[in-house]
Amino acid sequence: MINVLIINAHEVSPYSPGRLNATLVDKAQTLLQSKGYEVRTVSMQDEIDVEEQLEHFVWANRVIIQSPVNWMSVPWSFKKYMDDVFTSGMGGALCAFDGRSESDPKKNYGTGGTQTGTKYMLSLTFNAPKESFDDDNEYLFQGKSVDDLMFHMHANFRFFGMTSIPTFSCFDVMKNADIERDFERFEAHLQEYF
């Protein structure tokens, strides 16, 4: 059985109500349930119970993080979620601390993950255009990719022993959006990798 945890990391604000991220979560849930998968969803607007969240991670063998990219990272509420839930999971639910041993404390940092059978996917929404990435001539990202920018997120999940499914991104969503095409690409991405 494929068990999928989808986390909507969007922080609702007057500036950004989060309709796109919520719609992507709904589309993923509908499509994956139609394939016979069990799906649970969590939103940063939910009341977060740490033990319940850890149970979701133990239950899931696929995790989707649906997030806008705010100031080159995830929103503050999801960072707080990670600080609370991920730290509590260090006793075995997500990892057996950091993987190092007392006999050799300088080696194997980050190898204590207990979620080795779980895959994760970042699904991101950007104000930045796609052309801002992977181009040495572009000022801000200097030739770096989306995954380079989100390396810290990949490192978090690798710390738990998870393996990545290719990242999905919607670009230029505020000034030059092509939402219908993004939805088509998203569904094709899920069909290919789930």
What do these coordinates show?
The protein is of the alpha/beta class. The protein is 35% helix and 16% strand. It contains six helices and six strands, in the order βαβαβαβααββα. It has helices at residues 19-34, 50-59, 76-88, 146-149, 151-159, 179-193, and strands at residues 3-8, 38-43, 62-68, 119-125, 163-164, 168-170. Strands 1, 2, 3, 4, 5 and 6 form a six-stranded parallel beta sheet that branches. α2 crosses α3 (76-88). The chain is globular and about 55 Å long.
Percent of sequence in beta strands: 15-25%
Computed Rg: 17 Å
Structural class: alpha/beta
Q: What summary fits the major beta sheet?
A: 6 strands, parallel
Separation of the first and last Cα atoms: 12 Å
Q: How many individual β-strands?
A: 6
Mean pLDDT: 96
**Gross geometry:** globular
Low-pLDDT ranges: none
H/I helix tally: 6
Helix content: 25-40%
The gist of it:
The chain has helices at 19-34, 50-59, 76-88, 146-149, 151-159, 179-193; strands at residues 3-8, 38-43, 62-68, 119-125, 163-164, 168-170. It has 194 residues and is an alpha/beta fold. Strand 3 (62-68), helix 3 and strand 4 (119-125) form a beta-alpha-beta unit.
Outline the secondary-structure elements.
Blueprint: E1 3-8, H1 19-34, E2 38-43, H2 50-59, E3 62-68, H3 76-88, E4 119-125, H4 146-149, H5 151-159, E5 163-164, E6 168-170, H6 179-193
Parallel strand pairs: 1-2, 1-3, 3-4, 4-5, 4-6
Question: What descriptive keywords fit this protein?
Answer:
194 residues; 6-stranded parallel β-sheet; alpha/beta; 6 helices
